[in-house]
Write a structure and sequence with these properties.
Layout: E1 3-12, E2 30-38, E3 43-48, H1 66-81, H2 89-99, H3 104-122, H4 126-129, E4 137-144, H5 149-161, E5 166-170, H6 175-189, E6 194-198, H7 206-220, E7 225-226, H8 232-241, E8 246-248, H9 255-264, E9 269-272, H10 280-293, E10 297-299, H11 306-318, E11 323-324, E12 326-327, E13 357-358, E14 361-363, H12 376-382
The structure holds magnesium ion.
Length: 385
């Protein structure tokens, strides 16, 4: 089998609300959907939910946007991979790394499309290519965007009514405001819901972070804290000073990052998604490092459209060891809503079938490949270039 063409298209998914987090500067949902065609008629799908302001701690990685992604695919990667066997995914990864340094979202989109082709050719879902499912039911954690306390609490209450038991809370990184938000949410959802704030690097120094985290743990029973500060040294100080587990997100992109985090004790939990690592295979490597270091992982797919989130679901199913609930979109389709707002970040998507959701959990797709197909009418409707 040989690759014959790459066709990246930019779409804009319609957002549910003004969902946002600290440092986000653009509306979410303007992403690239990729088709990779082969001489045997099998088409692989990939997605790059690329955002220019999302690039790792301390400028360590470059942000990507849809135009950068399309440029790299059309003008560099297509020329190197067209004519090769798409099933040699590790060879494709090595080629991409040789000719393009960095740009993991672009590479993740291409890699997942090649795995989609490989799975379809073999008649197996992608999670089986990764070693099979360690679990098939994936608990959904809903991300509540930055909002005033009463509004955030009302959102969280509705999410819980939709059957979801885990909420991530985006807060601005101002201790008094953060505490007011988490206390309002705790009051609204009761004692049984697991909740954790995501600071998105918002605290500027260690003492501010430590005092704020301790206050939120004492007064709102948060179970963890996500990326409170920027930089591995500060993260180590926080991790060694607070009792609640510290989740690293912006600081953990590659297996090399994960090694350093484990060595320097700069987090307790690794947040993984297929994009940051440059694909599912490298994400599995991070999972292995976490397992070796005694660090649980979670998989976040809050922002992905249906194609990208499918990749995250296969990753969630295949990771070994302790996998904690991550922020996962349920990728609602208009007219086929499964919740009111729980797990919903867009009111429509470009895939033909919604993921199976029940009782706060998604089920990993089990059709061959990623298990999703594109709705061509919706691709036309939401296409921007
Ligand atoms: Mg995060």
């Amino acid at each position: 089998m040989k690759i014959t063409s790459f066709d990246p298209q930019v779409i804009q998914l319609p957002g549910r609300s003004d969902y946002t987090w600290r440092s986000l500067e653009v509306p979410i949902g303007r992403y690239v959907v990729l088709r990779v065609e082969t001489d045997e008629g099998i088409v692989g799908l990939g997605e790059a939910p690329a955002i220019l302001t999302w690039g790792g701690e301390n400028q360590r990685y470059s942000g990507e946007d849809p135009e950068i992604v399309c440029h790299l695919v059309n003008n560099v990667i297509a020329g190197k991979l067209t004519g090769t066997d798409p099933r040699n995914v590790k060879s494709a990864l090595a080629t991409m790394d040789e000719f393009v340094r960095g740009f993991p979202y672009t590479k993740a989109m291409v890699e997942s499309a090649l795995l989609d082709i490989t799975g379809k050719a073999a008649g197996v879902p992608v999670y089986q290519l990764l070693g099979g499912a360690a679990r098939t039911l994936l608990p959904v954690c809903h991300s509540v965007g930055i909002a005033p306390p009463e509004k955030a609490a009302e959102t969280a209450r509705q999410v819980v009514e939709d059957g979801i038991r885990h909420v991530q809370i985006k807060v601005p990184g101002d201790p008094a405001t953060d505490l007011a938000i988490v206390k309002a949410i705790r009051k609204a959802v009761g004692d049984d819901i697991k909740m954790h704030p995501d600071i998105n690097r918002g605290y500027k120094d260690a003492k501010t972070a430590i005092n704020s985290i301790k206050a939120m743990a004492a007064e709102a029973d948060i179970w963890a804290i996500e990326q409170p500060v920027e930089g591995i040294d500060l993260m180590t100080r926080i991790t060694t000073a607070v009792d609640v587990p510290v989740i690293v997100d912006e600081g953990c992109w590659s297996p090399f990052d994960a090694m350093e985090i484990a060595r320097r004790n700069s987090a307790d939990i690794l947040s993984i998604y297929f994009t940051k690592a440059g694909g599912l295979i490298r994400s599995m490597e991070i999972g292995a490092i976490g397992r070796a270091a005694g660090m649980p992982v979670n998989v976040n797919g809050s922002l992905e459209g249906g194609v990208g989130n499918a990749a995250n679901l296969h990753l969630s199913a295949a990771l070994e060891g302790q996998v904690l609930p991550g922020v996962i979109s349920i990728n609602t389709l208009k007219g086929r809503e499964q919740t009111r707002i729980g797990g919903v970040f867009y009111v429509d998507d470009v895939i033909t079938e919604p993921f199976a959701y029940a009782n706060g959990c998604l089920t990993v797709p089990d059709a061959p490949g990623l298990g999703v197909e594109l709705d061509e009418d919706k691709m036309k409707k939401y296409r921007v270039s």
